[in-house]
Every structure is written in C-alpha cells, then in structure tokens.
Amino acid sequence: MLINEVTLLKKENEEQSKELIETDKLEINNIMKSMSIFRVNSYDAQVIRRDLIGMAQELKLRDSSFEEAIGEDVKGFANEIISNSSGPSKSEILLKFLIKLFGFLFMSYTVLAFGAFGELTWDANPVLHLLYIGSVLIIFSTEEIITPLFITEKGIKKRLPSIISILLFIVLGILIYFLNDKGYTQKVHGGYIIIISAISYLVTKYLSIKNINRMAKDKKNYIEDLIGHCKGL
Length: 233
What we know:
The protein is mainly α. Residues 224-233 have low confidence and may be disordered. It has helices at 5-17, 22-33, 42-61, 66-70, 74-83, 90-116, 127-150, 160-179, 190-215, 224-231; strands spanning 121-124, 186-189.
C-alpha cells in the first residue's frame, strides 16, 4: 500500500510541536513557510521541521528558547538551512500544480453543473476556462512563490503577498471583462470536464505519492551543524 511519507512526518511533527512554547512554534512555522517547493522539496521540508522542533525542545530543557538561539536574522537562518538541503523537485512542483488545477476544475464545474445550471451541458463563453485556469495560477503562485519570499519579513512587507494577490486578481478580472463577448457562446460539456479532471486528479495524486516515496529513500539531517552550534550557546 502506498503511504505518503510526508503526511506521516507532518502528523508526527504536529504532535511534537504541541510541547513547544507559542513563540518557538510561531518562529518555526514562519521558517517553514519560507521553504516553498521551489526551494526545498516537501519531504526535506518536513525532515527539517522535525529537526527544528527537536532543537527547540533541547533549548527548552536548558531554559532557553528557539527565538533566542537563532537571533533576529530569521531569514538568514532559513536561507542557511535551504542552502544545505537537496533543493526542490521539479516533478513535485509540476505535480502539485496539476493536483491543484484538476481539483479546482472538478469542484468548479461540479458546482456549475449541479448548482448554477442544473445540467451537465450548458452554453457559455470559452473565457470561462481562462478564468478558472488563471485563478489557479494566481493562487498557486501566491502560495508557493510570493508568500514564502515575505513570510519572515516584518511590517508592511509581510502584507505584500495579500496586496500582490489582490492586484493579480484585479488584472485577471479586467482581462476577462475585455475578452468576454456575451454574444459568443459555445457548448460547455461540463460532465466530460468533471470526469476527466477527477481521473486526472487521482492519477496525479498517485504519482505525487510515488515521487515523495522516491525522495524519502535517502534520508538526511540537514541542520545537524546548526543544532550543534545552538548546543554550544
């Protein structure tokens, strides 16, 4: 049976993090959010998180804290960890995008078919497809590229991902408005789209699990040196 090792690690990390003080938990979460799949593959990220939690637990036993140990340069600390990792997985990036795309299309067209139109085929402008694909691109880019760049920042910089995301949706809305010719429609075969997107979603999820299991074969601790440094504090 295929088991997603990232899910198992994530579950274990969630349990271990309950023992941490809130400031350490928040600091670790911010560091992890800066490690998008474009910089570190998801399996390595969970291994790193496990080690960071262990590091925080050791510091707690010595009446210290994670925040005190790493200092104010959280971004530099995170970049050092990332530079020592094996980096991103191109196949994971592609699969994660496709999973989000097919899942979004399945849900959107299911709602349209059974909610808005009450049938599996309807007339609509083809720009409808562009709207959904564009929305997925913006959501994916915001979550995986833009937000990680600013998550460790403070003040107005930390709010930039939300501002950029809103601006991108405004641009997409303007584009859809000008491309939408209400006098031109085509048959939208929603039933086919629902079935194809559902099957594609399941296939890409399967391939994603296989890919994660492949990445997990060579396990490695990426922050041993950093933990050793903090032990000496």
